[in-house]
Amino acid sequence: MRRFGSLVPVVAAVAILGSGFAACTSRALGPGEARLTVTSGRVEVAATGEDWRSAHTDERLHRDDRVRVLSGLSEVHFSSDRTVELRNGSELQVLSHPEVLRGDVLASAKATPLTVSAGNAEAHVHDGAAHVSRALGVTVASYLGDLTVTSAGRDLTVPALRQAGVPGPGLVPAAPSPLDYQPDNPWDRRYLGDAIDLGDELQARAEGFTAQLAPDEGHTAGFYRELLPSLDKEPAFTQAQLDPNLSPGDTLVGAAIAVEGKDGDFSDRWQSVFGFHAQGARWGLVALDQHVSRAPLLAQVDDALGRHSVGATVAAPAPQGGTPLSPLATTPTTPAPAPLTPTGGGPAGNGSGASGGTRRGAPPTTAPSNPLLPLLPGNPSPSPTTTVPPSNPVGGLLQGVGNVVGGLLGGLLGGGR
User: Fold this and answer.
1) Tens of pLDDT along 140-158?
2) Radius of gyration for the chain, computed over Cα atoms and rounded to the nearest angstrom
3) How far apart, in whole angstroms, are the C-alpha atoms of residue 401 and residue 123?
4) Nearest CA-CA partner of 192 in 286, 258, 123, 113
5) How many CA atoms lie within 13 A of 202 on its CB side?
6) Domain segments of the chain as ranges
């Protein structure tokens, strides 16, 4: 009896632990159940047939419960690490396949797929994250991984960075389109923030480069080989690959992405880059789709812009009147005077022995005699020491005329005496 009695506390302890384990197990989420996390703002919950009430974080949700977000963000966690995130204006009903009743949700799944219903369509998230929006129609966009959208027996695979809209039952598009992100959307910013910023920088460079070119520039393969030397190593890069309707700036950015890409061969990358952009994808999204890093890509583009700036020729500014300056129209420069000859003769002298050096080959310092002046009455013979006439031709002319008039007057007055 004493030995049996000693077993009673042990059995009791095992029973308590067992009940605790059962209680913990009962807390595991079952089919159609979820757990709410209020990240920020105000969230309300309504059970079937009941009014809305304020919800709190870590609240257990049951099948058919509805959750709506009045402000901020909240998360509804399902089993197997699957989550549906709601934002302001979103409303969700808890089901085995949760249904979006209104607004936008972010659905994410890892090992176990998650199916989200939204009116006339369903989004099957296999291993990634998707933005599901319900308004007049349904739009499903994939941030990570592939997803499948289904409606009225028709389905479409939507790869990452693409989206598909279903305006009505069965109206599934033939192919997805590029993801149309919004910079102020918190989920777009979370998953695509770097691509959004990179796209803005690349677009600014593309537009600035195009504006610098003349209309006939930027349309040959050789032009881009000079800017991107890596293209010389690609035999597949030919004139036929250039789109004549694409601006030179966009061609340069797309070529840089194709050069920096590592997936597939060059021809495949070129077709993928420019094909995705032609569908409406912005350059940051194209770079992300090609798994191209931001820093090397911007360096590639900036180096190309620098090569063009160095090689560009700048026209000489035209003077007022619009006529370009001709090399022959420049102002003549005064020739440098001949060096002075040393005095005293000698090897470097002129042998004259006169004091004071004279310029070798310089014009004479005496003015040439004017043949007209001696013919005028009263004009004295020019002195051999007459000074050099002024360099101003107008002043010299006036001085000569004055001399002539003076001589005439002198002769007349002298004759009168």
Assistant:
1) 999 999 999 999 999 999 9
2) 47
3) 107
4) 286
5) 33
6) 1-30, 31-178, 186-310
